[in-house]
Amino acid sequence: MADAPSEKLSKNELKRQKKSIKAEEEISPNEYYKLRSAAVTALKTGSKNDHPYPHKFTVTISLEEFIEKYNNVGSGDVLENVKLSVAGRVHSIRESGAKLIFYDLRGEGVKIQVMANAKMYESEEKFVADTDKLRRGDIIGCIGHPGKTKKRRAFYYS
User: Fold this and answer.
1) Are 119 and 158 in contact (CB under 8 A)?
2) Is residue 146 classed as helix, strand or coil in its secondary structure?
3) What is the pLDDT of residues 63-104, one digit of tens each?
4) Parallel, antiparallel, or unpaired: how do β-strands 153-157 and 110-117 relate?
5) Model pTM?
6) R_g of the chain, CA atoms, integer Å
7) C-alpha–C-alpha distance, residues 33 and 30, integer Å
């Protein structure tokens, strides 16, 4: 994915990735199912760390509790000293550039926003590899810090 030692992605690589995601949205449900099934099978046969259904993911706080507990966090604040894990279904994905992605996570009748930032990841290459696997409808677990963007409550995924 990243050719340069600095792990920077080329603009052509980013355009290619965005086109493939857009193409997935325009295909029939049957074809989409086949593509996603093939992607899951590829993950299962890959390395142990990439297994799509890990043995266990520990959720430390429910989405409902998260909203109740961190509703009063100030706009733009992130609680760096608090680390939590949450889980839910990806309802929507919004990219704000190549290194910042917002996921709406739903579960238990509520919704939170998860902000995935390449700067908070171990490497840009790992960030791209992990975020490329996620699609709308996937059930995911996230580990990070509670906070609030300027517009809404968020969970900062690291």
Assistant:
1) no
2) strand
3) 999 999 998 888 888 899 999 999 999 999 999 888 999 999
4) parallel
5) 0.71
6) 16
7) 5
Kindly give the residue spans of alpha helices, DSSP state H, lying in the chain: 11-25, 29-45, 63-70, 124-133
97 sits in the region (left: phi over 0; alpha: psi -120 to 50; else beta) called left
Span 139-143, mean pLDDT? 91
Q: Return the CATH number of the domain spanning residue range 11-157.
A: 2.40.50.140
Q: How far is CA 118 from CA 15, 36, 47, 128, in A?
A: 17, 24, 22, 8
Q: Which helix (H) or strand (E) holds 156?
A: strand 153-157
Six token digits for residue 46: 């890959």
- Could you tell me how far CA 153 lies from the centroid of its own chain? 16
pLDDT tens for each residue of 26-70: 788 888 778 878 877 877 777 666 666 666 889 999 999 999 999
Residue 66, both tokens:
């998260």
